Amino acid sequence: MAAPKIGFIGFGEVGYTFSRVMNEAGAEVTVYDVLLDDPNRADDIRERITETGSKVGTLEEVVKNNNYILSTVIIQAAKNVAQTVAPMLKPGQIYVDLNSTCPSVKVGIGRIIAATGADFVEGAILGAVGATGAETRIFTAGEKRQEIADLFNRMGMNVQPYSRQIGKASMFKMLRSIFSKGVEVLLLEMLVAAKRADIDKDLWKDITRFMTSKPFDKIGDNWMRSHAVAHERRYYEMLQVVETMKELNIEPVMSERTAAYFKQSVDMDMSKFFPEKPESFHEVTKFIDENLRQ
Questions:
Q1: pTM over 0.85, yes/no
Q2: Residue 263: its H or E element
Q3: What's 57's DSSP letter?
Q4: What is the pLDDT of residue 203?
Q5: Contact, 162 vs 168, CB < 8 A?
Q6: Burial bucket for residue 94 (CB in 10 Å: 0-12, 13-18, 19+)
Q7: Structure confidence at residue 179 (pLDDT)
Q8: Which of helix, strand or coil describes residue 227?
C-alpha cells in the first residue's frame, strides 16, 4: 500500500503533534504555514517542521500534491484559507478542517470545498492536544468521515466517525466546551476568591474530596434533578455569594450569571411543575427548553 500523502496548512500545536505521528507511521507529510513567508520567523518554523520529519512546502504544493489536506490554522482564518485553496483542489482529494469553529462556519467551509469537487470532512478535536497528544479524541463528520477515521487510527490517533451531517461534530464540541471551559473558569473564580480569603487550600481539598467521593454521573444527575425543586433556594444563596465576592473586591462574573440562571428557573414557575424531585434530569432539561421556546 502506498504511503498516504498528507498536507498540513497551519503548523501550531495541532499541526506539530499530528504531523509527527503521521510521519512516524509512514505517511508522506508536507507542511505550509503562513509564518514561512515572514523573514523574521521562517527559519524557526522551518526547523520545527523538519523536526517532525515533514517536508516544507508552499501553499500550492501542499494543496496540489497531496490526497489529504488538513487545515489546522488559527480559528479566525479557517474560512479564508478554504476560499484561498479552493481553486487548487480537485475531485478525489479530501479536505479536513480540524479548527475549533462553530457549526455554521464548518457548514460554510463545507460548501466552499464541495463546489470544487473535492470531499470535505469536518473534524472536531475534543480535548487539549498539548496534554494528550495524538491520543486526543477527534470526531469526524461528512461522507468520508469513516475513511478519515480509519486512516488516522491506523497512524495511532483516536478518531471516531460521528455523523454524516456537516456541523454535528462541531456542535458536539462547542456544547461540550460549555462544560469544560465553564468549569475551568468557575474553579478559577472560586479559588481566586478563596486565596484572597486565605482558605484556598482548604477549599480545594474539600471540592476535590466531594467530586471524587462518587461517580460524576451520580453527582451531575442529582444536581440537575434537584434543580427542579431547589432552584429558588439556590438563587437566593447565589445572591449572597455575589455579595461575598464583592466584599472581597472581586467582580463576580460567573457567580452573577449563575444567579441569573437560577432566577430564570424561578421566573418559569418551575416549582409549580415539579412538586418533587423528578426521576430523570431529562424532565428538567425538557421543561427549560420548552419554556425558553415560548
A1: yes
A2: helix 253-267
A3: -
A4: 98
A5: yes
A6: buried
A7: 95
A8: helix
